[in-house]
TrEMBL record:
InterPro entries: Cupin_1, Germin, Germin_Mn-BS, RmlC-like_jellyroll, RmlC_Cupin_sf. This is Germin-like protein. Gene3D superfamilies: Jelly Rolls. Keywords: Apoplast, Disulfide bond, Glycoprotein, Manganese, Metal-binding, Receptor, Secreted, Signal. One of its GO terms (cellular component) is apoplast. PANTHER family: GERMIN-LIKE PROTEIN SUBFAMILY 3 MEMBER 3. Disulfide bonds join 24-39. One of its GO terms (molecular function) is manganese ion binding.
Amino acid sequence: MLHILFLVGSLLFSTTNAGVQDFCVADLTAPDTPAGYHCKNPANVTAADFAYSGLSIAGNTTNIISAAVTPAFVAQFPGVNGLGLSIARLDLAPGGVIPFHTHPGASEILVVSRGAILAGFVSSANSVYVKALKKGEVMVFPQGLLHFQVNAGKSHANAFVSFNSPNPGLQILDFALFANNLPSSLVEKTTFLDHAQVKKLKAILGGSG
């Protein structure tokens, strides 16, 4: 009996210790894998790996959407590797919009830090949830669902968004349809848009075909 208890205790002790790992700072020189980046040698980890200053700078909103997203995902912020979280900054000039997009790998929560933002998402049942948000208010967007943010005021707006993944992924609907070389005939067939509209949108967003 003592022998069995000792064996069980040893297995539990070794299993517990094997699962303990404080962090896994991403080794960005190694390839990204479905399981994430390999861990950086702990001897080479510094405090800088756990801090990121990029979100202190406003993004450049001089573009077609009058908005900018500054990510602090694992590729920019190696310390979040394996921790199941990340963050980004949104900047929206007057009239700015973050078009319909999805994050295949994470849910998102948005905190407005300046101005007014109209945000919303569409469920898989095609139900629409839209809310006008002001400074200090938050909204959550479930994983994988199409969602958007629009500057609802006359001045600059910005927000911070957090994800439950170090690499949430991003696909912007407009760019997926009109910024690549997918043949226009297929886009027209699958979106019910006419040829002139598709060609116009491809010209604006840089697509071909």
